Amino acid sequence: MTGHIIVRDGGLATTVQDLGRPGYQSLGLPVSGALDPVSLRLANTLVGNAEGETALEIRSLGPTLEIEADMVRVALAGTGTPMEIRGAEPRSVPAGQSATVRRGDILRIGATPDTACCVLAIAGGLALPAAFGSRATYLRGGLGGFEGRPLRPGDRLPLANDPVVGPERQLTCALPHDRERRLRVVLGPQAGHFNEVGIKQFLSSRYRVSIQSDRMGIRLEGPRIAHAKGHDIASDGIVTGAVQVPGTGLPIILMADRQTTGGYPKIACVISADLPRLGRLQPGDTVMFEALTVAAAEAARRAEESDIASVIGAIRPVLHGSETLDRALMTENLITGGEWLREEGPGAAIS
Amino acid sequence: MPLEPEFLPCGDTGLTVQLGDRIDRDLSLQVVRLGALIQQVDLAGVVETVPTYRSLLIHYDPLITSQADLISGVHPLLASLDTDRQATARHWRIPVCFEDEDMAPELDHVASWAGIGKGDVVAAITALPLHVYMLGFAPGQPYMGDLPECLAIPRRENPIPRVPAGSVLIATGMAVIYPIANPTGWHVVGRTPARIFDSEASSPALFAAGDAVSLEAIGASEYAEVEARLTEGGRDVLLVSP
Question: Residues of B with CB below 8 A from A298's CB?
Fold first, then answer.
């Protein structure tokens, strides 16, 4: 039996993403992939997939989907907005928890006012052709994903034929989020194109995310950064998170669909541990930057990975209201983070 | 030639190894050679390398290696960078329409910046075969040079959001062809009907670093006809010599 998910409404710009297609940048092919790779990994883990499986990236306003398969396990991660399920058993399922949807059910994800992107994972992923080793959508190139474009009403997304196994699962703790924290950067590769005043301006000013931002780059508005050596360099390679400063002096942070090379000087690069937070930034959000050494940035990434491993390690089966009183009590403690559960290990007993 | 490379950090996932400070064909061949050597010795944690005019960007996984370890791994490779030209280099001729206001919207601006006539700009761009230094920015996009000094117009101060696929653009004495619609900081002086990236082809990018490209002027009235001929004849029509 082959199942499908039918798109009733595509939302603002829902695309198929995974962790991207590294390996072809020397041909000029961008990496693409989820703007918030951590939410992609968590959502996939919640439905029992490999962390990097193909999933749907939702931008600000989610899709409405109809299930055309006997049974599908889904999970949303990266937002406070719940999944609304209409059908035989109408319900609202919070993000961070997987749910089983059935033939004819309508799955709707509304507006996500808390983030510019979140991820809906589907057990088994989507049976779409890979382009250059990945199913990530590269929008400007019309490549990968579902016909290289955002989802539209009437699209039929073929499900990979994986049976639903195991219980529904939920996150029991979250990554430490601090919206006030500055975005951490390593100065360079062309910090030398700016003088001390320019660097100080960059590190001490508050910048606002422009409405002219997309999967390729986030344009910032705020104090202009003066170049000391002009705004032209011989084009060189770019990493995701690089902060280029064109002649206007207004920085642009390069994101998942970024170009592979470019000729505006890059004053700094946002560290990889902070890229998911960068992906969630919305127009109007303000950011400040803080410089770290390379070694500190590498250590921050290791710490981030260890936090992610803890969150994944604390994923537990969902216990429903019909369970016994004991189990209901345990659920309560899981949700409120009761320490005895983790200490004494009933979690292990139920998993 | 002894090299005194600079190692420039790109956050905690990239290391730019800069071999020089100028755009020079030998230097760009050394960059390509360094990329090949890194692949050969299979340095731990290297995700991929991206060669550009004068530097190689090494993308790395900070959970497997560190920038400090990469620098120690790359250093010994710098002693043996030859500049042998690849035997596989080809010569292409690419038809470009420089006439139409829609296809060449900034030819006027470039001409007045250079203080010469529009015809002189086109003559300068098409006079000599250009050298493909690198592919970058977008799929299969070639960076070609060198244009005469009089056309070394700087990039725009502020990039514009979108120019169409096939656009031929110049800035800083270089020319590029856009395989897809994209934003740009360069100046659009023409458009080609040639497809320079085809994800279905066995080698998707038409050009490779080291190739030669002659841009040949075509009229606006023959654009559709040339496009049809290219669609029918495939890439071989564009080859001057194998």
Answer: 12, 62, 66-67
What residues are paired with A290 via a beta bridge?
A184
Chain center to CA of B188: 15
| Rounded mean pLDDT, B40-48 | 96
Interfacial A residues in 320-339 facing B (CB < 8 Å): none
Out of A26, A234, A246, the one facing B51 most closely (by C-beta) is A26
Whether the CB of A253 is below 8 Å from some CB of chain B: the reply is no
What is the model's pLDDT at position A321? 61
Strand bridging mode A183-187 / A289-291: parallel
| pLDDT recorded at residue A274 | 97
Interface check for B5 against chain A (CB to CB < 8 A): the answer is no
* pLDDT at A43 exceeding the cut of 60: yes
DSSP state of A42: H
Cβ within 8 Å of residue B188, ≥6 positions away:
B104, B105, B106, B163, B167, B168, B169
Tell me the CA distances in angstroms from A344 to A65, A81, B151, one per residue in order. 41, 32, 74
- Return all residues near A1 (Cβ < 8 A) that are at least 6 apart: A69, A70, A161
Put simply, whether A276 touches B (Cβ < 8 Å) is: no
How many angstroms separate the CA atoms of B110 and B153, rounded? 7
Alpha carbons A226 and B36: distance in angstroms, whole number: 37
With beta carbons less than 8 A apart as the criterion, state whether A99 and A122 touch: no
Q: What is the ipTM of this complex?
A: 0.90
User: Which positions in chain A touch B56 (Cβ < 8 Å)?
Assistant: 237
On whether any CB of chain A is under 8 Å from the CB of B83, the answer is no
The answer for residues whose C-beta is within 8 angstroms of residue B154's C-beta and 6 or more apart is A230, A231, A232, B171, B172
Q: What is the 3-state secondary structure (H, E, C) of B172-198?
A: CCEEEECCCCEEECCEEEEECCCCCEC
Residue whose C-alpha is closest to residue B229's, from B186, B196, B193, B197 = B193
CA pair distance A20, A258, nearest whole angstrom: 12
Please name the residue of chain B whose CA is at the shortest distance from the CA of residue A266. B10
Cβ within 8 Å of A, B 15-54: 16, 18, 22-23, 35, 47-54
- Interhelix angle B118-126/B107-114, nearest 10 degrees: 90
pLDDT of residue A176: 80
